[in-house]
Amino acid sequence: MAKFPRDFLWGAATSAYQVEGDNVHSDWWPWEKKAGKTRSGRACRHYEFYERDFDLARRLHHNAHRFSIEWGRIEPREGSFSRREMAHYLNVVLALRRRGIEPIVTLHHFTNPVWFSRSGGWVAQRAVDRFLRFCNFVTRSLAPHVRYWITINEPTIYLSHAYVFGVWPPQERSYLKATLVAENLAAAHIEAYRAIHKIYRRSGLDRPYVGIAQNVMAFVPYKRALKNRFTAYLRDKVYNLAFLNRIIRHNIIGSKRMDFIGANYYSRQLVELKKFGIGNLAMDVCENNRWPVEKNSLGWDIYPRGLYEVLLKLKRYDLPIIITENGICTSDDGLRWRYIRDHLKNIHRAMREGVPVKGYLYWSLLDNFEWDKGFRPRFGLIGIDYDNCKRRVRKSARLLGQVCKTGILK
Ligand code: FCB
C-alpha cells in the first residue's frame, strides 16, 4: 500500500489547442489544411463545455487541473489583445476555483498565433519580447486567482519536432535554427519568470510557483553494451536535462529562475547504436527486442520503472517536482489503469527515497486531438464520442478518483 501526502495535487492536464476547438488564429490551423493532416476542427468543444468537464473532474476528486491559454485567441493580431477571450479564461479559472480545483496554467503549449509564425516564429529576434507581452497581459488578468504557472511545455519536443525532424509547423530541418529556438525559449522562460514574479510582488500577492514542463524519458541501453550505455547517457543529457540545466544554473548562481520542475513522462527508449553518426547517436533504437514490453496504441514502450529512475536524477536540482503529464493512449481501459497504478507506485518509491514530488496530473482529462496523429490515440480518463461530443467517464478514471480521494494506492 502507498500513502500520499494530504496536500498532494491530484488531477489531469489538457492543452487548449487539443481540446477547445476552432482555434482559427493558431499556426496549426492553416498548417493542418496545407499539410493534408487531420483537422482539429471543433476538437472536444471544451471551449463551450468546460464547466461540465470540470464537474466531471470534481466528481473524480481532482483537486488540481492543468490547462493552457491559446495565445492566438488572446492576441489574434500582433499587439491587439482580446479582452473577451481573456474574460473567457478568467471564467475558466474561476470555474475551477468554485469546484475547489487548483488551476495550473500553461502559457505556451506548442501552438503560436499565425502572425507570430509568419513573422519568423521562435527564430525571430523579437520572439522573446512578443511572448513576454502576451505573458504580461495574461498574468495581470489572472494573478489574483492563480498560483501555478508553466511558461513553456516541453521545449525540447517542440524544437525537435518543429525545427529538426520537420514534422510540425513550421516544418524546418535546420540545426542552426533549432539552436536559435532553444536559446529563445530559454530566454522566454527566464524573462517570463521575472515578469510573473514582478506582477505578484507589485500587487502584494503571495509568491507564485513558476516552472516549465520538461519531457523526460528513460533511455535504457540494450544489453548494457558500452556503446549503448554511452549513447543513452548522451541522450539523457541532451533530451532530458540540457534545457533544465540552462535555466537552473541561474538558481545556483543566486537569482532564482525556476520554482518547481514539471515532468512529463510517458515511455522509455531502448537504445541500440548501429553506427557512429550524429543521426544514429540521436535516434537509433533497438527494433528486435527479445524481451518485449507492453506498448500503448502508438507503439511506445510501457516502462513505469523509468519514471522512478528519472525522478532520482531530477532530485539533484533540489526543487519541488510535479508530474505535469503521464498517460497512455489505448483502447484497453484495464491497461490504462495498470499503467496509472504502476507509475504511481514508482512515484511513491521515489518519494520514499527523498524526491520531493508534489503532484500527479494524468494526461489527459479528455480524449483529444493528438497533434499530427489526429484523433485516433485515446489518452482520456474521459472518452469522447466525436460524432456528438458526448463524454463517457472510464473505469480507470474512477479508480484513479479513489486514489485522489483517499491518497491511498492499494
Ligand atoms: C506530450 C504533449 C501533449 C500530448 C502528449 C501525448 O508530449 O505535451 O500535448 O500530446 O504528449
Give a short overview.
By secondary structure, the chain is of the alpha/beta class. It is built from 14 helices and twelve strands. The protein binds beta-D-fucopyranose (FCB).
Question: Can you describe this structure?
Answer:
The protein is 43% helix and 18% strand. The chain has helices spanning 16-19, 28-34, 46-59, 71-74, 83-98, 114-118, 127-142, 155-163, 175-202, 226-252, 278-283, 305-314, 333-352, 395-406; strands spanning 2-3, 9-13, 64-68, 102-108, 148-153, 209-221, 260-271, 321-325, 357-363, 382-385, 390-393, 408-409. The strands form 3 sheets. An 8-stranded parallel β-barrel has the order 2-3-4-5-6-7-8-9, surrounded by 6 helices. The longest helix has 28 residues, at 175-202. The chain is globular, with a radius of gyration of 20 Å. The structure holds beta-D-fucopyranose. Residues 15, 18, 153-154, 157, 215, 264, 325, 363, 370-371, 379 line the site of beta-D-fucopyranose (FCB).
